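ok so i was messing around last nite and threw this chain in just to see what happens. nothing serious, just curious
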Amino acid sequence: MSEVVVIGAGPAGLAAARAARAHGRAVTLLDSSDQLGGQYWRHLPPTRPSTHERILHHGWDTFHSLSAELEADDGCLIIRSATVFALEASASGPGVLHVVVGAPDGVGRGRLRLTPDAIVLATGAHDRTLPFPGWDLPGVFTGGAAQALAKGERLAVGRRVIVAGAGPFLLPVAASLAATGSTVVGVYEATRLPALVRGWLPQPWQLLGAWSKGAELGGYLGGHLRHRIPYRLGQAVIMAHGDTAVESVTVAEVSADWTPIPGTERRIDVDAVCVSHGFTPRLELAIAAGCSLTAERFVEIDDRQESSVPGVFAAGEITGIGGVDLALAEGAIAGHAAAGASAADPGLRASERSRRTFRRFAARIEAAHGIRPGWPEMLTPETVVCRCEEVTYGHLCATADSTGSRSMRAMKLSTRAGLGICQGRVCGRSVEELLARRAGEPLGDAVLSDRRPIAAPLRLGELAAAPVTTSSVTEPAEPPAPTDSPTVSPTKGPK
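result:
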């Protein structure tokens, strides 16, 4: 039986695994978390359940249906705490996967080497946060981090919190914060009303299929009214203040291109700020496989969700930021195709319709809330742009001016921007844009901050360890209890 490996157990990955199993293919589902659901369905651990958790999630029944079906299926091997650290291109198949299994900060992790017949990349995306003065202070969180703490741990990031940035994601972040008891003093959307109108209102009939999004929006608006959370357009947090942690922020009106408007600044006392300017796709494995990217830096796919590399399929946020409905539709199509089933199968029609609808929805999100070019005007020479290596905007500009370099590789080596522990995941795209803006032209060497041959941190001993294959994996009689001891064997999900 041919094998399909699905990387990522969020909405797209779960849908892909179920579709591949529906056509009789053996599936190995890998996820770096110890729970299924990804970032979207992040939930409390089984040891601390909530009797009313479904009210905190959209599509909770869908998640339970997908996860229960796969966990009960002997043809689907679920390996939790599994980090794919490399994808090695192969002439005889879609690639060789190198995996370590165990707690991310643990020792003695086991290593796997997988050579599947097809790979579905469903690696998702992470928050993008534009730098601003004070964003390196304790108390500044990405929206995703704040929501993860709220959903997965029921932890409030602060007592008085401000939410800022751009995009619909600001609304669920504010809702999650309010649910943990934080006072959300306001949501500040940088995009102004005319841009929102231009992005959302043309050809409104195209949104009829996305009626569920309207209901979701209504729920968030109801929560805003109930918790008395102000929602401001055309305003941004341009500075965070504090000695050892955030004590206040400066908010200002911004122009259509997000340039701060002098004289509109006002200071607000808060102890935390949550910022999100959209998402950056996790492209490390797709790039390692040799997949072509679009001009917008997403994985390029055909109608079957297959990339430019035969046998490598992609679904979810790495093909475009479109939300859970698009991820589920793309995952179902990708799993179907990865299993070798016909693209003309009538059973795909509903997923194809959903994909068309929510791709249009995704395009409207970008048109209405996409990052505007004036954001660097928020920076000062002392603003840290690479937090890992503490590289300031002034140092970055001075180095670019003194060297005259148009090479991203050279600038990384000379400034160390993007060479820290996060390997440019937080600052990479922003550094690229700042350097290109300084040069007045695109960088000339085509080096991408998303290219990371080693896709996740690992120890040299783990790299040198002898790998095994999934045929060596045996399922324990019961799931192991949480522990700090080494985890060396992947396990199938509890039935």
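not much to say yet. The first helix runs from residue 11 to 22.
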